Amino acid sequence: MLVEGAVFDIDGPRPAYVRFRRGRVVEVGTPGTDSTRGRLRKVRGIVVPAPVNGHTHLGDAVSVREPPKGPVEELVAPPSGYKFQLLANAGRAEKLAAMRAALTAMARDGVAATLDFREEGIAGVELFREALRGIPIRGFAFGRPVRRPVDREELDRLLVAAEGVGLSSARDEEEATRRTIAQACRLRGKRFGLHASEAVREPPESYLDPTPDLLVHLTKATPDDLVAVQGEGVAVAVCPRSNALFGRQPDLRTMERLGLHLLLGTDNAMFHPPSLWSELQFAYTSSRLLDRPASAVFLARGALVEPWVWLGEAEAARIAPGSPASPLVLRLPPEDPAYQLATRVTEQVIVRVGTPPPRPRR
Ligand SMILES: [Zn+2]
Fold it and tell me: Which end of the chain is more exposed for a tag (fewer CB within 10 A), N or C?
């Protein structure tokens, strides 16, 4: 297949053609200069690296109802908030089916990987692994040890099962707990992430020391706080739809101005389906609504490029012959490609060049 139009990857948006053979990129160049001399079917569109969902809680897909009234910190507070009651009251099979349905929907959207903050300790991580079986998505599990004070044995076993630890927030945990967990993650080459300044502003020193690999939200962070985050080189995952449901937004414009490493995530699956394209559209449009516009390029990078860089797999975000990327072809107008990505992508415009998407299970 030959796609003529544009490429959007780690090197930015540009006019290009891309030739595929068996789902892999074999040739990239300036439109009109391909080697096929008209022998191949041409598709007009945009070629992108497969997106990565930078922050999910897929376990909560067991609920799809409008959340009850009240502040989000009460709804999702461990160990007894609404969300934890839902998880505790749902059976294993029910949670597994809900996670599999969510992952299947993500795969149909072309998502290649997800960074999931998985509750419920080691059993929660194991359930997530089981849910991923047979679905072409790489699941990165950020588990949460449940015992306090931290039980070394539980933490060690969790770090064998998971890619890292994802905590509720700095203010929900003792400093000693955060230090023990962060240090254990470092020692084992695992990642340490936590939610920060979501409902109320927290002082940056509380979530930057010990230094995490990933912060989530920062909706209440001041520009100075964001400067501190940038100074430590810590990546930030933002979830604008989830935040908007509770009346707040991340300052995407300042994040862009400071050059923060931004990942886009869909957050709690009980609030929204894990559609990264919807998240991207909302992020773009809401930033303009607030008169704090962030560019389409910056936001699209948060779905397609920055997560690969964060994972240490930057080459997967490059559309080039021999690259490990598993690209998507989007049947969209190739003019102004970043704008198309931020406004027009749906499952229906995705053309498969590699493996077919899984069938929906329910
Ligand atoms: Zn979260």
Answer: C
Instruction: Report how far ligand 1's centroid is from the alpha carbon of 73 (Å).
Output: 11
Burial (CB count <10 Å: 0-12, 13-18, 19+), residue 334: buried
Buried-state track 227-241, b at ≥16 Cβ within 10 A, e below 16: ebbbeeebbbbbbbb
> What integer pLDDT is reported at residue 359 of this predicted model?
60
- The structure tokens listed for 300 are 């699209």
* 8 A C-beta contact, residue 224 and residue 252: no
Distance, CA 290 to ligand 1 centroid (Å)? 23
Task: Decide: 115 and 56 in contact? Cβ < 8 Å.
Answer: yes
Distances (CA, A) of 295 to 116, 133, 183, 231, 307: 26, 37, 36, 22, 18
Whole-number Å distance, alpha carbon 167 to ligand 1 midpoint, is 9
In sequence order, which residues have a C-beta less than 8 Å from that of residue 246 and are 6 or more positions away?
71, 72, 199
CA of 217 to the centre of ligand 1 (A): 8
Model-level pTM? 0.96
Report the candidate in 56, 51, 55, 46 with the shortest Cα–Cα distance to residue 15. 46
Q: Tell me the per-residue pLDDT of 21-38, one tens digit each, with 9 for 90 and over.
A: 988 999 999 998 988 888
DSSP 61: G
Q: 168 CA distance to ligand 1 centroid (A)?
A: 7
